[in-house]
Each structure stands twice: as structure tokens, then as C-alpha cells.
Amino acid sequence: MDFSYPAELEQFRVELRDWLSANLTEELVAARRPSGRDDASFEMLRGWSRTMSDAGWAAVSWPREYGGRGATVLEQLVYTEETTRARAPMPLNVIGMNNIAPAIMQYGTEDQKKTLLRRMMRADDIWCQGMSEPEAGSDLASLRTRAVRDGDDFVVNGQKIWTSLGHRAHWCQLYVRTDPDAPKHKGISCLIVDMKLPGIEVRPLVTLNGDTDFAEVFFHDVRVPADALLGPLNGGWQVATTTLSHERAGAARLYAEMRVRLEELVDDIAAQTDALDDPVTLRRLGEIAVRIKYLEVLCQRSISATLHGGSEITAFGSASLAKTVWGEIGQDMAALAFDVLGTRGDDAAWANYRLTSRSLTIAGGTTQINKNITAQRVLGLPRK
């Protein structure tokens, strides 16, 4: 691993830090984890997306022609470090901007790029991603939702689940099976679907902590225009791979976020208890701090591979391993916080995190899938 920050990056860092200091309010920091129950917070965060977009800070990795800054990998790394340190809210369309937008940039028509991307960046339109299904969670290739060509339309039938912001979305990047006779990786296509089309039914899902950030989405004979196809027919697997490999320094958010959480936990323990005098608590905090440092090294190794022309497989494999480690650290930190603080605090934030932490080893790729990727792409082990 070998990278350092050139002197010119400090100007970028200072500019961003000054802008965040002038524009990021305490109310925005408090609302940075939107809940499906709170419409006011959601709209506040939509306004923040517009503020960031108008200032050119919403999507620094995007090319300039689409409203970004064409940031280098190291600039993306600094951006992630500084926005996380400042506790800036993630964009409402974070899945769209990191995963869906790159596919539109690569495969979309000029009209799609012109009309969809800036509205996505500003959160004028909310996006969801139709991947997971009841029988196809982390295994996208097993999806069953069908799209059958009928004249100028595809007729879509099926179900998606765990669709983030599905009940708020205006658009969906939908993965469907268009050739049931092809090998399962090769019979998938990607559609850009207007969520107002007749036949789409959305049901919010209430999670363990009472939030409704997810939804299940049903498609009943939905007629999607054929020109909504994104990428080649039966080339959806290629589109999915493009979207999931775009953000080159995104792994930095894993360690930066955990570092901020640990700082907040220590502050809350100090303010509300005398547990920092307890050697057992101190040992547990110290172990988590060391693991976060290891996670930082692992993430930086992945970023370094990108910077120095390393194998894409190595970079992706390291990032997959980092995601697994991140989820396990988060769950252990949540358990420690609840053991020490219980339901203390006006909003019982750590008790809520204890509940939501159960999803950390599931969302964004289960631990089992990521360990398979690590075994095959990092360690070079055979599939069987």
C-alpha cells in the first residue's frame, strides 16, 4: 500500500471544510439518518441535496458535464473523510448517485443523461433500485421478475423486496429476466421504470426499530416502454457490475464512519455514566478502536490498488472484505453501547443502533457472499 496526499489536495480539503462549516447546520446533522416516519426530516435532507448540488459538492466524482467535479481518487478520498468528519448527511439518492448514475452515464441515451442525472443529484426525483427478491437476495442472478416484449413495451410481472426508499421513489432501476432459457447470469436486462406506471404496488416495510426506509414492490402486468431498456438486452449483469464498481474511494467511508461513531460513543459514555473507569469497558472500547484502524488500512489498500494500477479484482476483493469487517465492528460497537448506555438519551439513539445494526452484515452484500468473494478473488481459492 502506497499513497500520500499531494500539497495541492490541501486546497481542495480547506475549500470543502470551509464550505461545510458555513452551510452545515446542527439540524441537518441531527437529521442525517432519515427515517421513513419523519417527512419533515426527509424534506430537510432533500433541501440539503439541492444546496450541495448548487455548490458543486453533491457528486464530486461525476464528470463535470453532469454536474460533478471530475474528482481524482485522492480528491474523492479527501471528500469522504471531510464530509464524514463533519457528520454531513448522505445524499437522499446515495444509491442512485453511486450505483445507478454511472450506468446511465455509460449506457443511457443522451436524453436520459440530460433529463435524469441532475434531477437525481438534486433529489428532485427520488430513485430506488429493484434488485433483491424474496428468493434472490444477495444472489442477483436468481431473480425471477419477468419482462416479456410485447410490441413497443415490456410487460413486467414479479416482486422486489428490501427496496430502499421504494415508497418514495419516482424512478426505479429495475433488473428483470428477459430470457428464461439463457444461463441465469446472461438472461437479465435492466430497465428504467417510472414508478407512476399502472400496475405498480408499493408496500412500506416496518423494520425492527420501527422505521420504514424499505419497501416491497409488486409489478402486475406493468407496461414499460421498450426504450426504457438500459444497456443491451440480456446484458443486465454487465450493467449491474458497472454500477457496483464506480465509486473508487467509497471504501473510505467505512472506516471514517466507524471512527466518528466511536468518538460519539465515548463522549456519550463519559457524559452519562462512570463506565470509563471500568477496565472491562475500556478494554472493549480499545479493541474496537484497534479494529477500526485495521479497517482503515484494509480500505486504503483497496484505494491504493486503484491508484497504482493494481488489479480491479484485487481492489474489489479488498473492498468486499472491508465491508464484512465494517459490519462486524458496527454490530460489536452497538452491543457495547447498549450494554453500557441501554436506552439512555432523549431519542435512545444507541438502543436504536443496536436494533439497526443487525442489518449491517446483510445490506449491501451479505457476509457470506462477501466471504466467498474474498476467498476466490483475494486468496485465489477454487469455487468448490
UniProtKB/TrEMBL annotation:
Entry coiled-coil feature ranges: none
Domain Acyl-CoA dehydrogenase/oxidase N-terminal span(s) in chain numbering: 8-122
Domain of life of the native organism: Bacteria
SUPFAM superfamilies hit by this protein: Acyl-CoA dehydrogenase C-terminal domain-like, Acyl-CoA dehydrogenase NM domain-like
Gene3D superfamilies: Acyl-CoA dehydrogenase/oxidase, N-terminal domain, Butyryl-CoA Dehydrogenase, subunit A, domain 2, Butyryl-CoA Dehydrogenase, subunit A, domain 3
Cellular component terms (Gene Ontology): plasma membrane
Acyl-CoA dehydrogenase/oxidase C-terminal domain residues: 234-379
Record keywords, A-Z: FAD, Flavoprotein, Oxidoreductase
Name the UniProt record assigns to this protein: Acyl-CoA dehydrogenase
